[in-house]
Amino acid sequence: MATHRLTNPLSDMFWRRPRVLLALLLAPPLLWLGVVYIGSLAALLLQSFFSIDEFSGLINYEFTLKTYGELLRPANYDIVLRTTLMAAAVTVASAVIAFPIAFYAARYAKGRMKAFFYLAVMLPLWSSYLVKVYAWKLILAKEGILTWAVDGIGASAALNALLSLPVIGGNSLSVSYIGTFLVFLYVWLPYMILPLQASLERVPANLLEASDDLGASRGQTLRHVILPLAMPGMIAGSIFTFSLTLGDYIIPQIVGSSRNFIGQAVYAHQGTAGNIPLAAAFAVVPIVIMGVYLWMAKRKGAFDAL
Amino acid sequence: MSARLLMTAAVTALVAAQPVLAQQTSLGKGEGQVDIVAWPGYIERGETDKSFDWVTKFEEATSCKVNVKTANTSDEMVALMNEGGFDLVTASGDASLRLIAGKRVQAINTDLIPSWGSVDDRLKNAPWHTVDGTHYGTPYMWGPNVLMYNTDVFGDTPPTSWNVVFEEMTLPDGKSNKGRVQAYDGPIHIADAAQYLMAHKPELGIKSPYELNPDQYAAALDLLRQQRGLVGRYWHDAFIQMDDFKNEGVVASGSWPFQVNILKSEGQPIASVIPQEGATGWADTTMMHADAAHPNCAYMWMEHTLSSNLQSDLSVWFGAVPSVPAACSDGRGMQTQEGCDANGLADFEKINFWTTPVSKCESQGECVPYYRWVSDYIGVIGGR
């Protein structure tokens, strides 16, 4: 083995200068992150500081805050408010529904039952998002299965009362905010259940026993022991449900009253209008909202549960 | 400032790199292929339905292989053409002028297209593909935006005016139209409102529904705000609209012959009409890229679109009207005179074809540009 040498200059150098190896290993992912990820975000941010010329419709490449000012116009402000309220409502409702399911799956379900729960939660994620949304459109339609079932049990008066509510009501479930809300809730629910279940599984059983031994009622144990310990999981789940609702532009287009959500506004402004500055400014809104939200979540320790 | 400089530099470079192309004067041998950007369903080779094939024979006769890239919006088409690598595009009225202004398409020599003479005279010099007397493409297909309605509800009295979708009223079945009509979920629908006002409020002086001064524009928006009270959901996707007519209790809406034909074929109680106010419509043009790599095959394809069974069969397939009137009646394909009439052939004069609203307009100097249409229509739908 004449060619075999005990030392290799390259590995020698890595040994003497470990930072070189580190730099070589980190360079590709950092470049990817820097150029592709941060770069595109920066380009977006830059666009939002330009403005569109009122008369010609051409983009004016000079720094201005005018486009952000346009976000405060009633029609645009409505869109931001509508999207944020919907995201908040969906998040709260999915937390309320997810908690008992996650609690049962984490602490009571055993063996086959546990597997079934995992499967039942994950199953909807296996099918196409579009198929699910179109299916919901049919379920909620005026002449759809839900109306038929409600009619069958003689509760159509209740449904009509619900639909006659101002703002959130409408001609049928599928053209009202209630319908949009239900579909959002269904589609994002698994993203709340899974982290919540993970955090509930980590609540030590001896703490519950101690709470019991010290004379706490079940309600008190839930409020003062389980809920605080499960909070990080709930916040982690809420990050998913909140941000996913904030950015979605397909569900409100298929189910709902055609009133725009942020994602649809971005699509309309950049796609057909060529008003890229306003589209960029709209796109910055969820980033800002999520930034504030994540910062608050971090302070609550939500990321320990991930 | 530096960004602006960069842009200016980029634009200058682009303009400089743009070759000044004289139009072709003679046709050589085919280059073996032709690359086309087209709307979905526009170029069929019998793969979706065996009886709809207008590519195979062309390939056999010219040995130009046809490669199709479908695009779903006009913006996508413009983007693909800017990217390059294509020979032809089936551009709608909103994209065609942008492509010409951006010098992405070249002037064509109609002498190299023997069937040019058979094109509908009313389309030969249409402003969406002819600029200063120069032709930038061959007309492909056109169609109206019709008023689709439910025949069970309207019975013997089909609607004759767009007022069923703009004004609250009692329909022939005795119930209000509130919540039972739809409108198109795109800013171009403002033009439909303007067209309605042309007939019903002549004092506004609207000459073209795509050229509106601020007063006329405000009146159109007011009409649309009134319409918002009647519409549950605006339609965006043809298949969702068909579903809404079947399951959502919708009985009247602006629509395309495409939906009407499909619903009729399913046995639904559906018919359509072009009301007395007229209608808006679309017209597409086959245009040739400025740097087309296969110009001979491209010219052969343009000739083929006008002379073969394409015009006839495609008009059946798509619910559109051929640009060559003879294709309706000479039996080259499946289309018949009745079919063409049903798709809107006889109503050409009543149709205002889609063009992009610009600020410098012909009829009155200063008009509201398209980007305002977009933001304001979003506002109207949002209840503002």
Descriptive notes:
The complex is a heterodimer of chains A (306) and B (384). Chain A has 306 residues and is mainly α. Chain A has one domain: Orthogonal Bundle (MetI-like fold). Helix content of chain A is 74%, strand content 1%. Chain A has helices at 9-16, 18-48, 66-71, 74-107, 111-126, 129-140, 145-152, 156-163, 177-201, 205-213, 218-247, 251-254, 262-271, 276-299; strands at residues 51-52, 59-60. In chain A, strand 1 (51-52) and strand 2 (59-60) form a beta hairpin. Chain A starts with 8 loop residues before the first helix and ends in a 7-residue tail after the last helix. The mean pLDDT of chain A is 87. Chain B has 16 helices and 15 strands. In chain B, 38% of the residues lie in helices and 16% in strands. By secondary structure, chain B is of the alpha/beta class. In chain B, the strands form 4 sheets. In chain B, strands 1, 2, 3, 6, 11, 12 and 13 form a 7-stranded mixed beta sheet that branches. The two termini of chain B are 37 Å apart. The chains are: A mainly alpha (306), B alpha/beta (384). Chain A binds chain B through residues 46, 52, 55-57, 61-62, 74-76, 78-79, 82, 137-138, 141-144, 170-172, 174-175, 253-254, 256-260, 265, 268-269, 271-275, 278, and chain B through 1, 3-4, 7, 73-75, 179-180, 185-187, 231-234, 236-237, 240, 243, 246-249, 358-359, 366, 369-371, 373-376, 378-379, 381-384.
Map the helices and strands.
The complex is a heterodimer of chains A (306) and B (384).
Chain A: H1 9-16, H2 18-48, E1 51-52, E2 59-60, H3 66-71, H4 74-107, H5 111-126, H6 129-140, H7 145-152, H8 156-163, H9 177-201, H10 205-213, H11 218-247, H12 251-254, H13 262-271, H14 276-299
Antiparallel strand pairs in A: 1-2
Helix pairs in contact in A: 1-2, 2-14, 4-9, 4-11, 5-9, 9-11, 10-11, 11-14, 13-14
Chain B: H1 2-17, E1 33-38, H2 56-62, E2 65-70, H3 74-83, E3 88-91, H4 93-101, H5 121-124, E4 130-131, E5 134-135, E6 138-144, E7 146-150, H6 151-154, H7 163-166, E8 181-182, H8 189-200, H9 214-228, H10 238-247, E9 252-255, H11 257-265, E10 270-273, E11 279-288, H12 295-307, H13 310-318, E12 321-322, H14 326-329, H15 337-343, E13 351-353, E14 360-361, E15 365-366, H16 370-381
Parallel strand pairs in B: 1-2, 1-3, 8-9, 11-13
Antiparallel strand pairs in B: 3-11, 4-5, 6-11, 6-12, 7-9, 7-10, 14-15
Helix pairs in contact in B: 3-4, 8-9, 9-16
